[in-house]
DNA sequence: GTCTATAATTGGATAGAC
DNA sequence: GTCTATCCAATTATAGAC
């Protein structure tokens, strides 16, 4: 079995050594990042010797890259916008805004983001992987939805691609920075829900049909 | 002289060994980050021995923290909004949006951001420093300006603090991510200027005075 | 203060037995 | 495949001479 195949089913209850190593590597890399994580720590966490780790995986670099790519895929679920065709734009955008905020502010996603940003110089392709499994797909899907709303005459969005980026950018705002740096929301006095609600309302005013 | 005092005037043409070490440390840390930078490399770049580095600075941690805090201050210049009182809101926001984009997308600022994000677990206070010298002050200043525009009856911004966050969030959008990951603008087909112009127009529509 | 030389430790990777 | 033991390189930090 190839390494990729092993990784692909790493979520299963496979209890072979390879799976144990992958599980351990995921935990250690996510907790410590690439530099601070050691192959000793991974071997210990997996309950095997270091030599066994090297029998299954070529080296630290490849093991890391495999884990990170898998994590990007694991968090790439896009909130469905399919049966929202029946909902009003306001309902749909509120739901989308909330799911988006929950996703990008989740601690595991912030950890992943932090690690990929940190290791961009050493692993340039991981940044691209994260961008393409995450933001790129989300933007494309929202742009599509905005185009449909425009076609139906419910909104007036002339540059759906730009508008989608604006929508996500507003909701993320500086929230992700504060979470990344562990600056509490209380200190700022704005909640996530406030930011989402206010941004959806503002977005709808800006892109309402014009007379 | 204290370390802080030395650092405070590190931009001057002070050519003592302490200043040479600080200059070298800045270059090496900015290029390699904390983990990959070595005290050997810093000593070599400064043209002194490693023992001399340790004679002036307590250790790698403190030298790093000092350099990063200094870099945050160095990049904390806020575009003036003072004599824009005479400009139209559109002119003022366009100018602000452009300066903001130039600032946060500058390679040195992206490097600083990447390094602070990477080292947040080890140096939690640096994230706070970056947030407070950067986004926090920019948001406060824009919120102030939006409040004044509302007072003068030129706009209708009821939550200036939230609106300021929306403005910066829209302009940054996913641009900073793409720059961070070296994904070319050409690949996406949207320029910075387009993003700024479209966002300012959209912002003004959303916060125009209502009838 | 400054240098050379050297601890002391860590961590990636492997040899060789089983 | 798996383990123990080890190699080798890199790195932080310091001792001791000048």
Given helix and strand content, the structural type of chain A is mainly alpha
Strand share of the residues of chain A?
under 5%
What's the number of extended β-strand segments of chain A?
Answer: 0
Helix count, DSSP H or I runs of 4 or more residues of chain A: 12
CATH-scheme architecture of the largest domain in chain A: Orthogonal Bundle
**Number of domain units of chain A:** 2
Q: Output the radius of gyration of chain A.
A: 21 Å
**Main beta-sheet annotation of chain A:** none
Low-confidence segments of chain A, ≥5 residues, pLDDT <50?
Answer: none
Distance, first to last CA of chain A: 62 Å
Average pLDDT of chain A, rounded to a whole number, is 92
CATH homologous superfamily designation of the largest domain in chain A: Tetracycline Repressor, domain 2
Strand and helix order of chain A:
HHHHHHHHHHHH
Q: What oligomeric state do the depicted chains represent?
A: homodimer
State the CATH topology of the largest domain in chain A: Tetracycline Repressor, domain 2
Shape of chain A: elongated
**Approximately how much helix is present in the residues of chain A?**
55-70%
Q: How would you characterize this protein structure?
A:
The structure is a homodimer of 211-residue chains. Chain A is mainly α and 211 residues long. The first copy, chain A, has 2 domains: 57 residues, Orthogonal Bundle (Arc Repressor Mutant, subunit A); 140 residues, Orthogonal Bundle (Tetracycline Repressor, domain 2). Helix content of chain A is 69%, strand content 0%. Chain A has 12 helices and no strands. In chain A, helix 2 packs antiparallel against helix 3, helix 2 crosses helix 5 and helix 6 crosses helix 12. The longest helix of chain A has 20 residues. Chain A is elongated. The termini of chain A are far apart. The model of chain A has no long low-confidence stretch (mean pLDDT 92). The structure holds a DNA duplex (18 and 18 nucleotides).
């Amino acid at each position: 079995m190839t390494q990729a195949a092993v990784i692909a089913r790493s979520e299963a209850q496979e209890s072979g050594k390879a799976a144990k190593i992958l599980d351990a590597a995921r935990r250690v890399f996510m907790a410590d990042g690439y530099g601070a994580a050691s192959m000793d720590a991974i071997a210990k966490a997996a309950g095997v010797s270091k030599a066994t780790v090297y029998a299954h995986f070529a080296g630290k670099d490849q093991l890391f890259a495999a884990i990170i790519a898998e994590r990007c895929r694991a968090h790439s679920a896009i909130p469905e916008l399919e049966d929202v065709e029946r909902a009003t734009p306001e309902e749909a955008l509120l739901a989308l805004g909330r799911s988006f905020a929950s996703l990008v502010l989740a601690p595991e996603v912030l950890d992943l983001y932090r690690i990929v940003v940190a290791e961009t110089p050493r692993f340039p392709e991981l940044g691209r992987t994260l961008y393409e499994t995450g933001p790129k797909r989300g933007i494309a899907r929202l742009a599509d939805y905005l185009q449909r709303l425009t076609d139906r005459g419910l909104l007036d969005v002339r540059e759906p691609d730009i508008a989608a980026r604006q929508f996500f950018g507003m909701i993320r705002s500086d929230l992700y920075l504060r979470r990344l740096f562990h600056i509490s929301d209380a200190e700022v006095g704005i909640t996530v829900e406030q930011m989402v609600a206010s941004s959806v309302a503002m977005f709808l005013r800006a892109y309402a049909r014009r007379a």
